[in-house]
């Protein structure tokens, strides 16, 4: 048998053998939970699921407003930061990623959003695979869905992924919706029919006012299966190759372990950690890896490139004559009332997702080339200087708006051969003329909504970024001042056609040029979806599980990819 390639540091022979499984899945986030469930449905298939974080038994995971205590908490968050961003006027951002069973579905905003029909049709064109088109993926979304309105042409019932209406409303949000309609943004009761135009309340992944994460939905039903092994506190350090075939992983727990895979290793570690693991394992840009002393297994220059994210521009308005969460929770008796409301009825502010009201609009309605919404609003009945700080002591609302399809592209790359060292995250926000123009137009649209007759009774006063920013250049500067991630990184291991030298995986999510290795998570998206990215990631995992099982039935563990092998350095 060929000798496995060895990284600098501890050798595989000094590690304890965890065992041999048909499939080893790295990462128990949204995608990993789905894969573990679907693959282990076959009692003849053995599955190992590795998660660097811990159990999802922290109470703040399950109380919707608890995201405030999960983001920035080492118990549940990787605590990543970006590099200093020129487009954000030199600022560095926190970059939350879930580090717990359920992954980011345990700390995110719980918003159920698929994106637009055109997003998936663009994936089909980019991959040359019609099975990624909207008409093909819609039944996959419906398969896992348990929609509050029951089954229909667009929605599913009885699946694991619970989708409910929110359990509260705010007068200021109702009025913002009226103001948006006065600016030509029509009301909608469903953002998930392939055209998410309009304004309305978001549907959420909750069950009776409690967060419904991927761990509850998919791991819970599978945990008692004897063919599924779940290990938490397991930091995967690299995947192991014998020649060009991936045969297992090395991970660090209480001691150093190795786990072998008879069929495949599947990386579901997310848009940050999947490219990190590929590079640590010798799959990536050869020059970059050699400079770090890592032996090259496969030269794939696209690994870690093509990072896309939604940059939200937070605009806050002080209001009078209407109550918001700022003052509702300002005193101890208000906090007690809120707590009792949740304890008794699982409703009220503690059942809030981070954003309740949404709107999708065009940044330039007069542009004939703009055929669909390119902006998404997340509107909240509160305001604060920055995330993690106290709410303001006066009534206010925040309207955060993001460019749905940015043309800026960033990267995520390792800076060390040490698996415990965080990679360099460089989103490269606002680096194109297009993105700067959309940002300026987005701020202008928000101001028009705030100046609409419906809101006039509450005398909105812009406090962030401030009315001093008026010209195009000033608005771009303001965007750099207030812009922050809305936690949707994708694209760093993107799929593509056989002749696309920058693609990392093929349309069946197999890593190019090697055998026995797939990537299944948001990193494979060639283009970011026009909305929140959690449920699209779940759909990707559903499709991938079907692909893996189909390959198994056909005895297709050997590579059948038509793309030419890339050079081994």
TrEMBL record:
One of its GO terms (molecular function) is oxidoreductase activity, acting on CH-OH group of donors. The keyword Oxidoreductase does not apply. InterPro entries: FAD/NAD-bd_sf, GMC_OxRdtase, GMC_OxRdtase_N, GMC_OxRtase_C. Residues 98-121, 270-284 form the Glucose-methanol-choline oxidoreductase N-terminal domain. Its cofactor is FAD. FAD binds at residue 100. Keywords: FAD, Flavoprotein. PANTHER family: CHOLINE DEHYDROGENASE, MITOCHONDRIAL (PTHR11552:SF147), GLUCOSE-METHANOL-CHOLINE GMC OXIDOREDUCTASE (PTHR11552). Belongs to the GMC oxidoreductase family. This is Choline dehydrogenase. It comes from Paraburkholderia dinghuensis.
């Amino acid at each position: 048998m060929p000798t496995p390639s060895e990284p600098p540091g501890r050798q595989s022979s000094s590690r304890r053998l965890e065992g041999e499984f048909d499939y080893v899945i790295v990462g128990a986030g949204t995608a990993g939970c789905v894969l573990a469930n679907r693959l282990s449905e076959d009692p003849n298939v053995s599955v190992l699921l590795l998660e660097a974080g811990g159990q999802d038994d922290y109470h703040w995971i399950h109380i919707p407003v608890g995201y405030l205590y999960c983001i920035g908490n080492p118990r549940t968050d990787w605590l990543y930061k970006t590099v200093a961003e020129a487009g954000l006027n030199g600022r560095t951002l926190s970059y939350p990623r879930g580090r717990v069973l359920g992954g980011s579905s345990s700390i995110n905003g719980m918003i159920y959003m698929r994106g637009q029909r055109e997003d998936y049709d663009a994936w089909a064109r980019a991959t040359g695979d019609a099975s990624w088109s909207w008409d093909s993926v819609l039944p996959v979304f419906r398969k896992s869905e348990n929609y509050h309105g029951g089954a229909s042409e667009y929605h599913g019932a009885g699946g694991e992924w619970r989708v409910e209406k929110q359990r509260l409303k705010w007068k200021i949000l109702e009025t913002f919706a009226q103001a948006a309609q006065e600016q030509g943004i029509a009301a909608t009761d469903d953002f998930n029919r392939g055209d998410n135009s309009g304004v309305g309340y978001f549907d959420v992944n909750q069950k009776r006012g409690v967060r419904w994460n991927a761990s509850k939905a998919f791991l819970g039903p599978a945990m008692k299966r004897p063919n599924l092994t779940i290990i938490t506190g397991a930091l995967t350090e690299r995947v192991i190759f014998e020649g060009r075939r991936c045969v297992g992983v090395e991970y660090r727990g209480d001691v150093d372990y190795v786990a072998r895979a008879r069929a495949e290793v599947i990386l579901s570690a997310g848009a940050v950690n999947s490219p990190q693991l590929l590079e640590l394992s010798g799959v990536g840009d050869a020059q970059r890896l050699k400079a770090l002393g890592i032996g090259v297994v496969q030269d794939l220059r696209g690994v870690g490139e093509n990072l896309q994210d939604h940059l939200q521009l937070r605009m806050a308005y002080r209001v009078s004559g209407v109550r918001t969460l700022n003052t509702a929770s300002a005193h101890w008796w208000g906090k007690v009332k809120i707590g009792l409301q949740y304890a008794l009825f699982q409703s009220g502010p503690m059942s809030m997702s981070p954003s309740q009201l949404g709107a999708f609009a065009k940044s330039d309605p007069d542009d004939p080339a703009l055929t669909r919404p390119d902006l998404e609003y997340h509107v909240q009945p509160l305001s604060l200087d920055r995330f993690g700080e106290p709410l303001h002591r006066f009534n206010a609302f925040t309207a955060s708006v993001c460019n749905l399809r940015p043309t800026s592209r960033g990267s995520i790359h390792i800076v060390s051969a040490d698996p415990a060292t965080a990679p360099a995250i460089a989103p490269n926000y606002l680096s194109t003329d297009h993105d700067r123009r959309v940002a300026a137009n987005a701020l202008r649209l928000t101001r028009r909504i705030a100046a609409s007759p419906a809101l006039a009774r509450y005398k909105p006063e812009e406090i962030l970024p401030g009315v001093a920013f008026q010209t195009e250049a000033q608005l771009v500067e303001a965007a750099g001042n207030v812009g922050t991630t809305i936690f949707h990184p994708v694209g760093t291991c993107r799929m593509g056609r056989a002749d696309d030298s920058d693609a990392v995986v093929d349309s069946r999510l197999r890593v190019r040029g090697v055998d026995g290795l797939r990537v299944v998570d948001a990193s494979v998206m060639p283009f970011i979806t026009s909305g929140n990215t959690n449920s699209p990631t779940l759909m990707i995992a559903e499709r991938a599980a079907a692909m893996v099982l189909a390959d198994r039935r056909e005895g297709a563990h050997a590579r059948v990819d038509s793309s030419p092998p890339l050079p081994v350095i």
